[in-house]
Amino acid sequence: MKQWIRGLAAMLLAMVATVASAQPKALALGVYSFLGDGVDVTSSDDSPRDTRLERTSRETLDFRNIGFDLIALLVAREAVLAQRPGSKVMMYRSPAPMATAEQRRLAVSATRAELPAWMVKTIGDERLTHLLIITRNRGPISARTGAGDAIGRGHVDGIGLYMDTLYTIRNATTGALSTGLLAPHAQLKLQLMDAVSGDILATYDVRDALTYGAQDTQVRADPWSFMSNEDKVRVLRQIVEDGVRRAMPDLIAKL
User: Fold this and answer.
1) Which of 30-44, 123-137, 164-178 has the lowest mean pLDDT?
2) Which residues contact 67 (CB under 8 A, 6 or more apart)?
3) pTM score, whole prediction
């Protein structure tokens, strides 16, 4: 009888151990967005112009509080909690605006586990197990048309608007033809890091761009006029939201 009890106890302990090992480890994730509010404008000559706040070369556009950081942070948090309920998710923004080139350097440094001091402090203070770092990137423009073709020349930075007068675009709704295109875009990098080892567990690149021509039958020579300022902001926000949301399942799978 004693042997039978010992055998049963061993079996029960093995079952408990199996169940425990099947449970995901407690997750404490810090999500860091460095996107800021800047909007980059790139012409077909591949010369980017930063339109952040008052430094616009097109017209006076106030992009303060455009909300790219908040969008990225909330989408990431929602996705993690949907898959890992009860997880601890802390959200952080950069204490100061960073240009796209600076963000690219930060992303490279992260691959060597080299992080700014304020980020290292949050890891210890909050006992984080993982980090998700969201930065702007640079890459080739590839704007999709209604026919599914990818068009564009050169490279673009981060979140912004690409203009090119090489192409003739037809509005699928109105039939209007316009010389040139306006392409809102987002070039982002998401990096998932193990906070203990410093290893990058997964990387996801967002490279999205949409194509816009003239919205009416008026002849317009300047692609900048193809969208209102309100629509530019709305579309850019949506591209960032869609890109981060699409990236999260792949990243969460590595947690």
Assistant:
1) 164-178
2) 37, 237
3) 0.84
